[in-house]
UniProtKB/TrEMBL annotation:
Domain of life: Bacteria
CDD domains per UniProt: crotonase-like (cd06558)
Record protein name field: Enoyl-CoA hydratase/carnithine racemase
Length: 236
């Protein structure tokens, strides 16, 4: 399960289970619930602060738990909505946020990274990718708007329409990521960003984010329906 550590004023949300490496860090229902509880803990703090999200080993996160989806088709719409609401929460979080993408970020994992204010990727290995088009999986409208709202126009189009994988340096050059650094510098660079901007934490920052991304947030928080039907077809 995800867990939380702290580097002085910077909270670090680890998508991997404590001590685990090279797990895919899927965002199944238990993980989504745990992340929300950890975000509640972060918000309960006082004073300047920032949030950094990272994984461990080969994967940042591979996104939705597809095995769970195929076993719980009747619950997929509610599950998808919970992920969308988590993305909206990250997008409007009232403190500076940075994704330390030390490994692969696919699908929902890519969306989590994109929802942060700042993204640092590993330069030499690891990809960010939205593979829906290549596997026949549609996205909820809020997810599409999130990519379109946070990334430059052409890369956003290409990412969604082709399923291309972007390494760290290419992602940085195209404006998908803000920085691409050596593997052992990813987390430190994200923490530095957070610490640099920690004094912006508060109501005003949250209001600015909510206004800037109002249409995307509304779409992310809209009722999800029909995803379960798609999952049933995929699993048949």
């Amino acid at each position: 399960m995800p867990h939380l550590t702290r580097d002085d004023t910077v909270f670090v949300l680890h998508l991997n289970e404590e001590g685990a490496t090279d797990t895919e860090n899927v965002l199944g229902p238990p993980q989504v619930a745990q992340i929300n509880e950890l975000l509640d803990e972060v918000l309960a703090s006082e004073g300047p602060a920032a949030l950094v999200t990272t994984g461990a080993g080969k994967f940042f996160s591979t996104g939705l738990d597809t095995a769970w989806v195929l076993e719980h088709v009747d619950q997929v719409d509610a599950y998808t909505q919970s992920v969308q609401e988590l993305l909206a929460r990250l997008l409007t979080f009232p403190m500076p946020t940075a994704a330390a993408v030390q490994g692969h970020a696919f699908g929902g994992g890519a969306l989590v990274a994109i929802a942060h204010d700042h993204m640092v990727m590993r330069a030499d290995r690891g990809y960010i990718c939205m593979p829906g088009i290549t596997i026949g999986a549609s996205y909820a409208p809020g997810s599409v708007l999130l990519v379109a709202d946070r990334l430059p126009v052409r890369p956003a189009h290409e990412m969604l329409m082709t399923g291309r994988r972007y390494g760290g340096e290419l992602a940085r050059d195209l404006g998908i990521a803000d920085a691409a650094v050596a593997a052992d510098e990813v987390l430190a660079a994200a923490i530095t960003y957070g610490r640099t901007h920690q004094n912006t934490r508060g109501r005003t920052l949250g209001e600015i984010k909510s206004s800037r991304y109002a249409s995307t947030v509304a779409a992310l928080r809209a009722t999800v329906s029909g995803v379960g039907d798609q999952a049933a077809i995929a699993g048949s």
